[in-house]
Write a structure and sequence with these properties.
The protein is built from 18 helices and 16 strands. Helix 3 (54-59) links the parallel strand 2 and strand 3. The protein has 473 residues and is of the alpha/beta class. It folds into two domains: 8-297, Rossmann fold (3-Layer(aba) Sandwich), CATH 3.40.50; 302-471, Succinyl-CoA synthetase domains (Rossmann fold).
Length: 473
């Protein structure tokens, strides 16, 4: 069954609610939904009839009602967390109440593959479609809108939005990406987990966020689509307006089988997906880590389609490894121009090191960093500068590292060229706190950092390919 078209204004109301009700939250789950909604800027209501659960709800200061219909005010968005046998009754109340959107956490529908589950899903689908209800799910985490404080996990940030919207067929990946984005300084506009997607699915949300002025970057986790032609036509149109990053689940035969039992989706050939993603000019990734890496680069780096990388930092062996990583990814590590070599030659006569690209000097102070950055960022053969930094240096001399960061920012602002960093540590667990502190400093400066050469190179390559496709290079 294909998805239906719902007016953008109604989706706007569902994804930007002014009032929220949670139906069926329980003490056994730690009141996970109501505690997650504690940051919501609007009115929060509870619907619960179990006398064992009501005292805890009242202790949180949340007004509780025995029915959704008893709530005296309008409700924009409802979280349904009741057993499947009650879900239809609650959904019927949502329709009668004039609710705009529902996040149905309840599972046990088509993804079970049982006749009972299929029939139950058909019932709620018909009900929601007839009412033009924006039903997220069933079998999903629903909505995360950090600017309004609507959350599906109490561990997520609230109070400030961002430019990235993520659409996920998986609730777990929706939560994981939200946490990864938070850790990497990626601002989120909205995350929509839609599970079985009986009313709106990937294509509908792609269309919505393509028109959303607050969304500059779209990311998607997809297991299958209901109308492949419509999806890819829309994807081709959207990528010329804003970047779309796609993580396709079910890439193997075993993975396809898993998607069927996860969200009831039918997964198409990965070869077909790969070709169509490229032809549409979207960016393909294969994990939540890669998704965060690419988005971090998209959000922070100046627009550039150049593939010549100038490398700085590390010892001789590390410089060789850096060069291999960037070259294997498909990026160039070119020789510097003769003018740059002459300037570097004068400089390195004093300190001694190799400088043909990479510049393999470690432990640079601010002045040394500024000199190298001025030369490399002005070199016509260099489109991007990538510098290795060490967390141990931050621990020993924070002022020196901050001076290096200032030099990177200055070079970026002077030339407009992208600057990225790789945080090298032979003991990342032992230096975990120092790594995090250094990364936070770089986030403040809007300089993306990566824990390995390979991850930095791959993220850059993805961005370069996207820019070149759309610039006609």
């Amino acid at each position: 069954m294909n998805s239906v078209r719902i007016a953008k204004e109604r989706i706007d109301r569902a994804l930007n609610p002014r009032s929220v009700a949670v139906v069926g939250d329980k003490k056994a789950s730690g009141y996970m939904w109501l505690r997650s909604m504690s940051t919501f800027q609007g009115d929060v209501y509870s619907v619960q009839i179990d006398p064992n659960d009501i005292p805890g709800i009242e202790e949180m200061g949340v007004p509780n009602y025995s029915s959704l219909m008893d709530i005296p005010n309008d409700v924009d968005y409802v979280v349904i967390a009741v057993p499947r046998r009650f879900a239809g009754l609650v959904l019927n109340d949502c329709v009668s109440k004039g609710v705009a959107g529902v996040g149905m956490f309840t599972s046990g529908f088509a993804e079970t593959g049982t006749q009972e589950g299929l029939e139950a899903q058909e019932t709620i689908t018909t009900m929601a479609r007839d009412a033009d209800l924006v039903l997220l799910g069933p079998n999903c985490m629903g909505l995360y809108n950090p600017a309004l404080g609507v959350r599906f996990s109490r561990d997520l940030a609230a109070g400030q939005g961002g430019p990235v919207s993520f659409v996920s067929q998986s609730g777990g990946h929706a939560v994981s990406f939200s946490a990864a984005a938070q850790a990497n300084g990626i601002g989120i506009n909205k995350v929509v987990s839609f599970g079985n997607g009986v009313v709106l699915e990937s294509t509908d949300y792609l269309e919505y966020f393509a028109q959303d002025d607050q969304t500059e970057f779209i990311a998607m986790y997809i297991e299958g689509v209901k109308d492949g032609r419509r999806f890819f036509e829309l994807l081709r149109e959207t990528t010329f307006k804003k970047p779309v990053v796609i993580w396709k689940g079910g890439q193997t035969e075993e993975g396809k089988r898993a998607t069927s039992s996860h969200t009831g989706s039918l997964a198409e050939s990965m070869d077909t997906w790969d070709v169509l993603i490229r032809q549409c000019g979207a960016i393909r990734v294969d994990s939540v880590t890669e998704l965060a890496d690419v988005l971090k680069a998209l959000v922070t780096l100046p627009r550039s389609s150049g593939d010549g990388v100038g490398l700085i930092g590390g010892t001789g062996g590390q410089s060789v490894s850096m060069t291999d990583s960037f070259a294997k990814s498909g990026l160039r590590v070119p020789m510097f121009s003769q003018d740059s070599l002459d300037k570097l030659g004068e400089f390195f006569q004093v300190i001694g090191a190799s400088y043909l690209n990479p510049v393999d000097v470690g432990g640079m102070n601010r002045d040394m960093t500024e000199t190298c950055m001025d030369i490399l960022s002005s070199d016509p053969n260099v489109d991007v500068v990538a510098m290795q930094m060490s967390p141990s240096g931050f621990s020993r001399d924070p002022a020196q590292i901050e001076g290096q960061i200032d030099a990177l920012v200055s070079a970026r602002e002077t030339t407009g060229k992208p600057v990225v960093t790789m945080l090298f540590s032979p003991d990342p667990y032992g230096e975990g706190e120092a790594l995090k502190n250094l990364d936070l400093k770089l986030q403040e400066a809007r300089i993306p950092s990566y824990p390995t050469y390979d991850r930095a190179a791959l993220a850059l390559k993805r961005i370069v390919d996207y820019r070149r496709f759309h610039d006609g290079a």
